[in-house]
Request: fold
Amino acid sequence: MLDFLFSGWGAFAMTLFMLLPFAAVFTYVVHRKSVVDRGPATTAPKKISNVETAWLTAVFVIFVGVNLASMKYMPTIASAHAATTRTDIQDVDLTATSWQYELSTREVEAGRPVRFSGRSSDTMHGFAVYHPNGRMLFTMMLMPGLSKPTSLIHTFEDPGTYKVRCLEYCGIAHHGMRDEITVVAAR
Ligand SMILES: [Cu+2]
Reply:
């Protein structure tokens, strides 16, 4: 429903909207200090330090709270969780070579975790997967010369055709480095 906020004018409007409170406070402070009350500050230092302490505490609590609450959505944490709790993981091995992908399979099942294990045979490549609605789900950076593949576990919710794009600039035909994955309904 709120997808329009993630791109184009929607995202631009959102950015402006975020800036409005700052603009309002800035205007208020400048107006007060230049028109309403031009003298030196009369607020007691103790009172200011109390406000500062309360403000810092709130920022700290919100910062820690949001981090803890959003941790399970981080790809690394979600991958580790799926790797230790699920026994029905589907494996997709892939190798990126300028300027194409070699995949062990291009069809996976919805609802079951998929472990993408990727390597690069020549230079730095990316492996980004997009939902059919255009939203990017995740991206992996594939570095050449690593002893182990780079891996990430993702569970697809919706059947459909998912686009794959390289998001690391890798040479003259980087823009053409694309592929597709088909997600079929759970069997
Ligand atoms: Cu590329």
Strands lie at 90-97, 100-103, 107-109, 113-120, 125-130, 136-142, 150-155, 160-165, 178-184. The helical segments are 8-36, 45-70, 75-85.
